[in-house]
Amino acid sequence: MNKLELISALKERAGLTKTEAAEVVETFFESLTSALARGERVEIRGLCSFFIKEYSSYTGRNPKTGQKVTILPKKLPFFKCGKELKEMVDNKQVDS
């Protein structure tokens, strides 16, 4: 499912106009993105959680030359699946 399909599904289920549904979806994604950018954890009970992992600087190697390279510290977003979602996917019990 992509963003447009999500908007269409919301439009149909909630009885919203396409513009209203698009605004809801955009607001959700903007809020999620902003929270992660601030380093906050986002948890959607029964579905998933999003969080930031911080990596320290380390020495790596350039695969072409074999030369040592310093990798700078970084932060990356991560997704962790919730228990209910895991079970639903494993049992293939998805309601359309």
Shape: elongated
How many structural units, i.e. domains?
1
Strand portion? 25-35%
Name the poorly predicted regions. Answer: none
Largest sheet: 3 strands, antiparallel
User: What proportion of the residues is helical, as a percent range?
Assistant: 40-55%
- Which class do the helix and strand fractions yield? alpha+beta
By DSSP, the count of extended strands is: 5
Would you state the CATH class?
Few Secondary Structures
Based on CA atoms alone, the radius of gyration comes out at 19 Å
Q: Which CATH architecture is right?
A: Irregular
How would you spell out the order of helices and strands? Answer: HHEEEEEH
Q: CA-to-CA gap between the ends?
A: 12 Å
Count of separate DSSP helical elements: 3
Overall average pLDDT: 93
CATH level-4 homologous superfamily? IHF-like DNA-binding proteins
Instruction: Enter the CATH topology name.
Output: HU Protein, Chain A
Q: Enumerate the strands of the largest sheet in spatial order, edge to edge or round the barrel.
A: 1-2-5
Characterise this structure.
This protein has 96 residues and is an alpha+beta fold. The protein has a single domain (3-91), classed as IHF-like DNA-binding proteins (HU Protein, Chain A), CATH 4.10.520.10. Helices cover 43% and strands 28% of the residues. The strands form two sheets. A three-stranded antiparallel β-sheet has the order 1-2-5. Helix 1 crosses helix 2. The chain is elongated and about 60 Å long. 2% of the residues are buried.
Summarize the structure.
The protein has 96 residues and is of the alpha+beta class. Helices cover 43% and strands 28% of the residues.
